[in-house]
Amino acid sequence: MQSDKRFNIPDDLKQCISFHGHLCPGLVYGYIVAKESIKLLDLKRSMDEEIVAICENDSCAVDGLQVMLGTTAGKGNLIIRDYGKNAYTVINRSSKKAYRFSRKTTYIYDGKHKDEFADLESAVSAGTANDQEKARQRLLKAIDLFSKPFDEVFSTKSAEISMPPYAPMAPSVSCAVCGEMTMQTKMVPKKDEAGKLICLPCSNLVNLMS
User: Which terminus of the chain is more solvent-facing, meaning fewer CB atoms within 10 Å of its CB: N or C?
Assistant: First the structure.
């Protein structure tokens, strides 16, 4: 960040960077979507499953949503449907309202370093950029994205969506083959041994051997 001292990083974005490991365009996508959804849906960070995020990719943006909204895989309120789309739906369970945010167009750099960015972009695309050049390209793009009006980057639509179920709770039991404790609802009956359950890896192994 030393080469662009005029870029003042907000504290909440710093938290995203700390969690993710670095500043990059993908993280900024998730951050700005989270900020817009907080505004539109009047959200506070989800302590349990009050908020649900449905991400249509598994990119860096997901980490921005996790930090800002409290939507995590462990709590079950982060759903990834990896269609490769830069699109995100955020749901407020209490108000039963949701918005879907979808990136509008191919990215165009509008910052003050257009010639430098064009050269870096060409080098990255050609596979000739070194680590320092890759980092510089990510930084310039991230700063540029952060400075754009949200509506220039994403389209926003109210979403009609069936409310996702809460994360399931079930006891763990011992697999009849490997003996490891496994969530009961994730197991399958053991063939020819009524009442016994086996985990999916053992089930796959048994099927391969049969």
Answer: C
